[in-house]
Each structure stands twice: as C-alpha cells, then as structure tokens.
Amino acid sequence: MSEHDLNWKYVDESVVESDAVARARQQSLELGIDAVSPAVAAQLGVLAAASRAEAVIEVGTGVGVSGLAFLQAARGALLTSIDSETEYQQHARTNFADAGVAPARIRLIAGRASDVLPRMNEASYDIVFIDADPDSVIEYVEHGLRLAKPGGSVIVARALWKGRVADPAKRDETAVAFRTLIAELAASPAVTTAISPAGDGLLQLVKLGS
C-alpha cells in the first residue's frame, strides 16, 4: 500500500461517526450509492460549525450522509437538498428523523439540479455543497457562486476524480472539466480556494465580498 493510501486509510478510520451517519452510510452501500467518505463528511461538519452556517444547500441528497454531517455540526442550520432520485430522498427523510432532526430544518427538492438551481434565491446560502453529475460540475459551481452569500463557501466533492485530475495525460471529459474549473478558480480574484485530498478530493472556495 502506498504512503498516500495509508494516509487516506488512516484519516478515514480516525473519524468516529454518529450512529445515525453510520446507519445512513451502510444504507448507501446497500443501495449502491457512493456517499462521501468519513473524512470528507468530517470536513463538511467542521466547515459548517466553523462558519456557524445557518443555511446550507446541497446538490446530491443520497440517503443523507452529507446532510447529517451538516445538520449535526451546525445545530441551527436549515438544509435544502436537491436530488433527482425520490426514493433516495425518502430514505434520507427517514434517516434525518431517526437522528432527531426537526422536519422544519429540512427541505428536500426532487428534480434535476440544472432545473432547480436557477430557481433558487441568490446570495442566500452560507454553504453550497456539490456532489452530483460530475460532468456538469462547472455549471453547478457557477450556480453555487450565485447562491452563496458574500463570505459563503462552495464545496465540491470528488474534485480529484479517481486520481485522474492530477494526471495531465488523462483527457476524459470529467477530468478535464475538474482541471479547468480548478485552474479558473485559482486565477479568479472573486474567490479564494483550497483543495483537500480527503476522499476523492474536496475543492473549497470562499466567495469574497466586495
């Protein structure tokens, strides 16, 4: 096992997840959903708590692993979550309830993100989390920057895309899209960015105020 893999394994195994998140993670495995890793979920929680997030929107509900990470870390936050799979959202709703999350803190929207995001209010969210349709990541980040408040964060999962983004020889559409996105954001004066290697890569950007 490489040093990178050992570090990745250690970081993931160092996370102690709540029973509710562990159950949702197991359900994800049973349904064939690729939920965010424990290390990524932990980072989402830290970012939500540190920013004292009150409004979070995520693209990609799954059965609630990432949603629970946000809701359990930022105890006053309201979560809006978008997914085209209504079955998954029903499981997520149950998992939120089983974790003791009040229904008033959750809004689940069934639909394609490309249809839903343009209808959401701009500059309304402390955190925008994107974990869906990697081929549409540039479009989703553009929407995310519109939806984020000044000083708010846009967070993108799987930003290293199976290790392919770091290898310039990999020219598939998804790897190129992430590579282009990362380069453009790094050069933009409107945001400050960082990439964590946790999971399959977590791209974090903060929308700078005027």
Architecture overview:
This protein has 210 residues and is an alpha/beta fold. The chain has one domain (3-207): Vaccinia Virus protein VP39 (Rossmann fold), CATH 3.40.50.150. 42% of the residues lie in helices and 21% in strands. Strands 3-2-1-4-5-7-6 form a seven-stranded mixed sheet, sandwiched between helices. Helix 2 packs antiparallel against helix 5 (86-98). The longest helix is centred in the C-terminal third of the chain and has 14 residues, at 173-186. It starts with a helix and ends with a strand. The mean pLDDT is 95.
In short:
With 210 residues, the protein is α/β, with parallel strands linked by helices. Helix content is 42%, strand content 21%. Helix 2 (19-31) runs antiparallel to helix 5.
Could you give the topology of this structure?
Layout: H1 3-13, H2 19-31, H3 38-50, E1 55-59, H4 65-73, E2 78-83, H5 86-98, E3 106-110, H6 113-116, E4 125-130, H7 137-147, E5 148-157, H8 173-186, E6 191-196, E7 202-207
Parallel strand pairs: 1-2, 1-4, 2-3, 4-5
Antiparallel strand pairs: 5-7, 6-7
Helix pairs in contact: 2-5, 3-4
